Every structure is written in C-alpha cells, then in structure tokens.
Q: What sequence folds into this?
C-alpha cells in the first residue's frame, strides 16, 4: 500500500502530523525561510531586505574577485586544518587518560568542560589580555604579528573546544565492549595494539562527529576572531589596499556587509552563500570519509 | 466532542505562540502620528527618555526612544528600518552615512526645524542637493591642556601659539618628567576605545588643510595628495614620544588617558569637548588648544568644530508621523526646559532659541573664532568606507609605534593617502 495512505489510515499517525506541526513551523520560520531569503538576497542589490532589487549574479562575481575574500579563505582553511588535528588529538588524549580510572576524573572532566560555557566575545577579550600581558614584556602585542594572531586563536580554540570533544570521546570510550578489550588482552595485544586495533576502530563514530564539529567550527569561527585580533595586523599594499592577515571568512563577510558601498550588503550576502556551500560541502565529504571507517559492533 | 475540544485547545496553543509578535506600540491616535527616535549616543539616553515622557504627557503624541548600544548603530539601524514600525527619526552623521541612507531620508529643506537653525555649517547634503540631515549639536576637539601643570613646569600657556611652542613645552616637560612628577602627553592607546582620537580626529588636520587648499570640499574627494602628512607626523610623533606610556606599549591599550589627565599625571590630553564634564571637576581651568602641527599661519588656527550628530527624518514614514517627528524636534530645540536639558548633555545646539552652552571647551572654540581664528571643520567626516579605512590606519600606526622607521612611516602614509583612494573606489564603484 502507498505509505502515505498507510499513515492516514491510522488515527494515531494522523495526529502525529499535527503534533509535528509546531516544530515544522518553527523550523520553517527560523531556518528554511531565512535561508531561502538569504539566497534570494545574494542575487539582489539592497540596503534593507524589504526593498531588494534583483540584479543577477553580479554579487557573486564581485565576491570572487575580492582578494580579501580569497585571503580569508586560505587563512581559514589553514586554521581549520590545524585546529581540527590539534583539538581532536588532544581531546582524545585527555579523554583516554580520564577513562583510566584516575582519582578525581569527574572533577577534571568538569574543569575541562567549563571553558565551553563562556561566550566567544568574552573569551576573545580575556585571551587578548592574557596574550598581551605576556607579549608586552617583549614590547609587542598579539596585534603586531600574523603568527601571534594565528597561534593565539589556535590556543584559544583548543582551550575552549577540547573539553567539549573530550566529553564525546569519553562517551565513545566507555561504550567500547569490555569483552573485546579482555579478548585482546588474552590474545596478548600490548597497549599500543589495543589502542589502535581495538579502541580507535570502536570509537570511530565519536571521531566522525568530533571531526565534523571541529572542522565546521573552525570554518564558522567569528566572535573569537573579531574579539581577539579583528584581522590585525594589516599588510598595507602599495596601492593603498590592505590585507587583513588574520581575518577569517565569517568576519570578512561581516565586514563586507557593513562597508559603505551601496552594493556591499549584496556582495556580503553572496559571500555568505558561497560560504554555506563550502562548509556544507566540506562537512559532507568529511562525514563520508570517516563513516567508511566506522565498524559495526 | 472530546476530539473537537482537543483540536480547539491545540489551535489556541499555536495561536498563543504568535501572539507575542503582535504590535503593541500602536499610538492611541493615528491622526496625531507618533515619533520613534533611534538614538546614537548612549550617554544621551536617560535625558531623552525623560524628555520623551514629558512631551507625551504634554501633547499626547507617543514618543519612543531606543538607543543602539555603543558602536552598533549601523547594525541596529539596518534591522530597525526594516520593521513595519521603523524609526521616524534617526542619525545620518557623515558622508558615508549619506551614501547609505539618503534614499530613506526626507528632504528637510524648508521644514519647520530647518528654520530654527542658526547655521548651515553642520548640515549634510547629498549630491543632488537634498538636505539629508541637520546637525542637532556640535562638538569640538583639539588638545586639552592643564595650565596649572604647565605653569608648574615653568612655562605659560602664552608660549604655545604654534607647533614650535608646543614642542618646546612638551619636550621640556617630558625630559623633566621624573623631577616634575607628571609627563607631557597622556597615553595615546591604539585599541578601539581610543584609536579614533588619532585616526579620526588628529588625522583631520591633514584633511582640513588639504580641503582649505582646494577651496572647501562639498563631497568626498576621490584622492588625497598627502601634502600635510609631515604636519600630521610632527604632532603625532610629539604625542607618542613625550608621553607617560612608551610608544611600543600603545597597541594593546588599557591605559586610561582621561584619568591620567584628571589626576595630574599628564599636562596634555588629545580629546574633545564631550570630555569637559569629566575633566572640569578635577581640572577646573582645563582649556583646549588647536592642533598645532607646523603649518604656516597656524597661529590663527582654531579648534576642530563639527558633528556626527545629525537628524534625519524617515522619508518612508507616514505623513502624520513625519509631522509629529518634526514637531518634536522643534520642541526639543525651542522649549526652554527641553533645550536646557539637551544642551546640558550635548554641549551646544546650533539653534536660534536653544539655551547657551556651559561647556568650557566649546566656549574656548567660540573665543578662538571671535578672535578671528579659522575653524578647522571636520573634513574627517568625508573618510570613505570609514571603518575599513581607519582599521588599516590603526594597523599601520601600530607598526610605526613599535618601530619608528622610515619604512613604517611610509606604510602609514600609504594607508592614509592611497588607502583613501582605495576605500573611495570600494565605496563608489
């Protein structure tokens, strides 16, 4: 029978649709509609979204020829790559240590998780004070060198994200079947072999979700970037333009949107659509890649 | 029956979700119109809320004042203007704002509020000559000085009539700072809470003299020639090298320049008339001197007077609302009590019937003018794509502060002069 008819035939399922209603409505109002409108606006010239004028793909052309957008892309990609590796390696290590039955591991877990509860802007300012407190001893500042800005942001993100990923890894580690570990022991596997042949394949689902989260977080990073360096230092080009050496994609989109050209909101919007395609695409590729390595228990 | 009841209940619950969205700000009487002012100055908020209430009690016209958080005006304006009850009164403070918002601004030429003005100097026009916004107060900036400290150092204010005089006094004080117990300049931090004093204000001396050479600007010039960069450098160098804080420590910020001046740790403080209330209690004889920078004839220079506080009326609001808004504006600048409260907060208002100012620095500005000195107007308001332009300048100045080499000064010059052209193109192409 037609599945739709089947749903309709059972009264409980019929009512199910009604109960889904509010969630679906909220999803449409809060996500689908703004998303569709965002795509539409990327094809328009507008100052206010209520009087947008359709202009076609001009915004996309301008977005792609903007050197600052290209710089922000490569910088963000580098940042996302480095933070992805470091966050996951360190989070896994911490999770592994804290599932070895060390005394006080609950306290450690709580402490490591806590940085997650602080908002990005606050974190950015706090860390800029910490970094500058140290760097001022050498008469410099995090705003003076690109490498300080880059590693500063990496340290900030590690500090914030490791605790969160750690929780996911701990859940994964605790779900590794005892009998498998015991079997490995009986078979004479050493710790290293147990880790790489038994534990890691079994926590692949956690790795999938953690790499997905840290990759997309890396690309979407905004508040921390704005509060910590806001793109400083700039390299002033001979023609008077400048490259904001630590500006990431999301901040670049924000700055574009609010610059004074009459077309800039449209260009910012076009960049945002490109940004979505990029992040969604990368996320899907990564999911496929790690899913393949997951094992069935 | 039960089913029908459940259905009804569910429907009511869903409706309740949307009830929060209904517009509860409808004025009692549509014909009277209503006023919604999106305010730009957080420090003015309390006064405005108070005045709005007084006006509503008096006339029955509803007045709503919303203040955008510091530094977020353009974001707030963008989202508020999109609402069905958009602001009827908002701020277009500079040429970049004119470019963005002119289509939403009513031509104020010939309106009742325009007739109350005593000068056209603070009004903004677009390229077609439409009066987009009119100044409701003006301010001045320059170098705030503490005459008592200068006398303690064995100098007088009369010695400071040009750059050479200022330099001699400042360098002498700095050299003897340990002995005197105070330094020449307070810190010139480059963080976002302070950098505008240099990238927005001090930079004006360069723009102003270029503008004067050109016979006045009526719109943003596409390029600068950078002829007065040396003069900017003169004053900037003096300021960072004769200060409480080493130039290498300026990028981070965190030095409270206002407090340094108030507590007598520094004799000079680069800032504007809005500081009067804050410093006059501690330094009652504080006075403001012009940006002396080594330009020929600068003995005749006055303070930098201008404003970014300009009212614009929403062209897309209903006629009744526009009229109510203009009536409210006229009331603010003509009613003795209302204008007194406004002037008390704002310093001075360029309107015929507004009360006179009690701000010492604005009175200094008037004194210079009446002594025949030229007013340095705010050419800085023409800065194209202002946030991007200033951010680049801050970055270049940071590098220069850390190492005052010629190469680093060249980068400052590039950001200043070529950066202008670049941002002009970005804003206008």
A:
């Amino acid at each position: 029978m037609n599945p739709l008819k089947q749903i309709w035939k059972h009264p409980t399922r019929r009512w199910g649709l009604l109960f889904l209603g509010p969630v679906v409505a909220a999803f449409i109002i809060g996500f689908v509609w703004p998303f569709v409108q965002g795509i539409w606006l990327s094809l328009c010239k507008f100052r206010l979204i209520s009087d947008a004028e359709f202009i076609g793909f001009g915004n996309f052309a301008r977005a792609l020829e903007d050197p600052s957008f290209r710089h922000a892309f490569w910088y963000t990609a580098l940042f996302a790559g480095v933070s992805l590796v470091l966050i996951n390696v360190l989070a896994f290590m911490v999770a592994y240590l804290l599932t070895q039955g060390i005394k006080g591991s609950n306290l450690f877990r709580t402490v490591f998780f806590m940085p997650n509860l602080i908002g990005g802007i606050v974190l950015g300012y706090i860390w800029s004070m910490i970094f500058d407190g140290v760097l001022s001893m050498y008469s410099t500042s995090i705003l003076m060198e690109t490498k300080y800005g880059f590693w500063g942001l990496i340290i900030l993100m590690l500090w914030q994200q490791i605790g969160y990923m750690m929780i996911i890894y701990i859940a994964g580690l605790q779900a590794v079947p005892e009998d498998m570990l015991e079997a490995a022991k009986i078979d004479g596997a050493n710790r290293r072999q147990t880790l790489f042949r038994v534990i890691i394949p079994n926590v692949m689902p956690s790795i999938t979700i953690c790499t997905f989260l840290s990759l997309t977080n890396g690309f979407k990073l905004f508040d921390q970037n704005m509060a910590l360096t806001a793109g400083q230092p700039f390299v002033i080009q001979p023609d008077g333009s400048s490259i904001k050496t630590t500006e990431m994609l999301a901040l670049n989109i924000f700055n574009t949107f609010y610059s004074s050209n009459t077309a800039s909101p449209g260009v910012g919007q076009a960049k945002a659509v490109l940004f979505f395609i990029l992040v969604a695409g990368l996320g899907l590729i990564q999911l496929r890649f790690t899913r393949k390595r997951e094992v069935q228990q | 029956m039960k089913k029908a009841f459940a259905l009804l209940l569910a429907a009511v619950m869903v409706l309740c979700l949307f009830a929060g969205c209904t517009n509860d700000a409808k004025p009692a009487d549509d014909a009277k119109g209503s006023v919604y002012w999106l305010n730009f100055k957080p420090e003015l908020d309390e006064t405005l809320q108070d005045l709005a209430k007084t006006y509503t009690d008096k006339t029955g016209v509803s007045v709503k004042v919303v203040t955008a958080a510091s530094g977020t005006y353009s974001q707030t304006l963008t989202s508020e203007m999109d609402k069905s009850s958009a602001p009827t009164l908002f701020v277009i403070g500079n040429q970049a704002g004119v470019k963005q918002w002119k289509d939403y601004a009513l031509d104020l030429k010939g309106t009742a509020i325009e007739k109350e003005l005593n000068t056209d100097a603070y009004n903004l026009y677009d390229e077609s000559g439409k009066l987009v916004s009119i100044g409701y107060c003006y301010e001045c900036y320059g170098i705030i000085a503490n005459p008592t400290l200068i006398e303690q150092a064995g100098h007088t204010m009369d010695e400071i009539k040009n750059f050479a005089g200022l330099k001699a006094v400042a360098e002498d004080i700095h050299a003897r700072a340990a002995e005197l117990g105070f330094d020449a300049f307070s810190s010139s931090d480059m963080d976002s809470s302070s950098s505008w004093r240099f990238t927005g204000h001090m930079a004006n001396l360069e723009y102003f003299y270029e503008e004067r050479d050109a016979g006045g600007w009526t719109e943003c010039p596409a390029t600068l020639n950078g002829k007065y960069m040396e003069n900017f450098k003169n004053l900037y160098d003096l300021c960072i090298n004769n200060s409480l804080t080493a130039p290498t420590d300026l990028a981070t910020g965190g030095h409270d320049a206002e407090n340094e001046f108030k507590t007598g740790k520094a004799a000079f403080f680069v800032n504007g008339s809005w500081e009067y209330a804050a410093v006059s209690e501690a330094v009652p004889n504080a006075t403001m001197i012009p940006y002396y920078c080594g330009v020929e004839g600068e003995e005749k220079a006055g303070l930098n007077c201008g404003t970014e506080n300009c009212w614009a009326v929403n062209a897309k609001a209903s006629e009744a609302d526009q009229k109510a808004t203009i009536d409210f504006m006229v009331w603010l600048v003509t009613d003795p009590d209302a204008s007194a409260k406004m002037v008390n907060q704002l310093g001075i208002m360029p309107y015929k019937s507004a009360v006179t100012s009690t701000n010492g620095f604005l009175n200094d500005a008037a004194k210079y003018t009446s002594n025949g000195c030229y007013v340095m107007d705010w050419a800085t308001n023409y800065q194209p794509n202002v946030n991007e332009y200033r951010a680049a300048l801050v970055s270049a100045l940071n590098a220069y502060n850390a190492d005052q080499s010629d190469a680093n000064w060249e980068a400052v010059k590039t950001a200043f002069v070529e950066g202008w052209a670049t941002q002009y193109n970005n804003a206008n192409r």
Summary: Chain B has two domains: 26-137+307-352, 140-306+365-428. Residues 140-306+365-428 of chain B form a domain with the D-Maltodextrin-Binding Protein; domain 2 fold (CATH 3.40.190.10). Confidence is low (pLDDT under 50) at residues 16-28 of chain B. The two ends of chain B are 67 Å apart (CA to CA).
